[in-house]
User: What shape does this take?
Amino acid sequence: MRKCIAGFAMLLALAGGSASAQNVDQVRANLAKLKPADFPTQPIEFVVMFPAGGGMDNTARLVGKYFEKYSGQRVINVNRVGGAGVVGHTYLATQAKPDGYTVGIVEANTVLDGVRLQEGKSTWQHGDLEPVAFVNTDSTTWIVSTEGNLKNKTMSEVIAEMKAKPGTIRVASVTNTMLEYLAEQVETEGGVRTIKVPFQGGSPALAALLGGHIDVSGNFLAEYRGHLEAGKLKILAVAGDERMPALANVPTFNEALGTNKINWSPFRYAAVPKNVPAARKRYLEAAFDAALRDPELLAEFAKNGLDGRRKYATSALVAAEVERVAKGRVEFFSKRVAK
Amino acid sequence: MELFNNLPSGFAVVLTPTNLLYCLLGSLIGTLVGVLPGLGPLAALSLLLPLTFKLSPVESLVMLSAIFYGSMYGGSTTSILVNIPGEAASVVTCLDGHAMAKQGRAGPALGMAALASFIAGTLANLILTIMSPGLAALALKFGPVEYTSLMVLGFVTTIFMVNGPAPKALIMIAAGIFLATIGTDHVSGALRYTFGSQNLIGGFDLVAIVMGLFGVSEVMLNVEKIARSEIVSKKIGRLLPSLQDWRDSWAPILRGSGLGFILGVLPGGGPVTASFLSYAAERRLSRTPERFGQGAIEGVAGPEAANNAAVSGSMIPLLSLGLPSNGIMALLLGALIIQGVQPGPMLMTQKPDLFWGVIASLYIGNVMLLLLNLPLIGLWIQLLRIPYKVLFPVILLLSVIGTYSVNNNLFDVWVMIGFGVIGYILRKLEYELAPLILAYVLGPLLEQSLRQSLVLSSGSPVIFFKSPISATIMLVSAGLLIYFAYGRIRSARSVNAAPPPTKEAS
Assistant: This one.
């Protein structure tokens, strides 16, 4: 597995190898042409809705570093934390000045959850945060311990086991997150019943899995890479539309369950409040694009199982993807309420 | 043995110039906040927490823990010289330490406090080092069921260890549990007591509550006390204790080290309770209990040893289970999580450099502190001359900045101010605040693991007695509760046989 990840990182580095030193200058020159005369004259703030040191924050800081590299503008990371991200999203959508100096580094499901958690009282909708660039996608995976009962089973066999012994397989779930939704969807799509054990986050669930207190845990690759390399864990399936480049031999949930509805991948993008002047927005889009194509940055992403390939190269494509995620969720939650 | 590979590698991590610098910095800050009344380790750690975001996990944990045990050294200075505890764990040091100072023996009191701290700190580190490798494997055996029992034990010991009337402690614990329910329920996702406020979806921020309850209210209380206190300005004299002092103190130091270490490990324990219990134990064991309060050096040596040993002890549940045994450890936990490090059973294998680095830094920090607190004691005494009209506004300002900078959310500042006022009133009414904070941290853990266990067992409580670990802990808790209730009833009958050893509410 370690080889596989390292190999992928190397591949990316090779693919991006064309962006050599003179190319950096070229990209910088192209970007400078787009720069409005009056913008930016002060540092740009990257707003993150989660505490410093977390996954979101690390991603933002990394992107900020390469944003600075190409644009020559200073970036300041600001963590506006509170209310499961709602405080920060509300700030970005309704209070931040639309002058281009405030850019949120956000994740589609968290944005949508922010609106949903306010139970109809939200003063903003996801469309009020206008995308300027795609950052990366992560993949939620299901893992089992190599010492547990399910160590020799594939995802389809685990589903069969769940069917054979309903209500006995213990699956970790983190309430109000994709991990909970994923577990629910596996139950409905697979027609099975499990014991969903609520945890406060991925790490406690992982510890419980290693201690044999649960059978299956949902985690992101970055959380458990060390244990995977040490041979303590096995990945069952990944909850994306397609297989993860870093884990090409791991099937998707959709493959294992014969459906196309299961996609709980974090989708990270940069967004600004509405009404940012068009020229400034265009400059931000170009600066992010330059930063996010940097091979070193992509290699950093890949090390943690993050997919930064520029599948959504324009902000229109990003907005369309956010809409698609929103639609899928509306469908999921309407069924969930009905149930 | 693995140990002999691990500890040297830990020293290799710490003995880099930057890590040594952060260790020294933490020791200095710790001694400083220990010396300054009105600023305890809890307030100092929460103030400095945002500054550690830029550091690496090793650097920040080395510095933050140095602040913690550093304040245990510094706290005794103010207790001995001014009769105001520099921080809560030095409250009992006032009793005999200040009495010694009045008799012109401030030097040996200060010297013994520092030396006892050093000996106990080093002994406790040795125990920690030897026990650590076995702990990680044991820690993985703790699932939801075992955690639930551990939390129950934590609450029982919290009631057991508070000073003062039990009903008041129970009220504080209940208040802490209630405050912790505000926000999103982690099991069902329902919003509780948020009254439509988006600021409350995630509950109150721990730092804001702690800063308010301890920092702000401490300043308010001290403003009143200052007018009445006097600094012993007589010459400090010789610092080194005499041979007779050592003869009186060596056993209390050893007992204090053991007691402190155990209390540090137990949920609900910590330096404050360790120092109180050590003082009580020494007085009970002494052949001349009447000397206590009149300048008995055992009354300085025992508690000062105990509070330092408790710091090392409390590293065990934090690093091996991710469980904070007291409020300060809860902040260290927060600091690690902010750094993206989840303390828990896997920490030792996943981040050995962090784990062993921190343990190695405990040894080094203790040496630094001994040097800072013996030869340089004169410098710290000068600090006590800073006028409070300068010091207190600065502390308040730092509290506001510190609280705001954690989340960049102004709401937290209002929470802090609100809890400052509440804390002031509660302390005036002689309620202890530590059980409230502990309940605020442990409450959600208990709720979570209890509900997880019941999900696993489909609602049957028998699950808590199926696991040997859990069953044992449950029985111990029940035994303690009965013993405690029995003791209370008995002491209530023999009214006022002996006045309690404490006069200052911590």
About this structure: Chain A has a mean pLDDT of 87. Residues 2-137+266-338 of chain A form a domain with the D-Maltodextrin-Binding Protein; domain 2 fold (CATH 3.40.190.150). Residues 315-338 of chain A form the longest helix (24 residues).
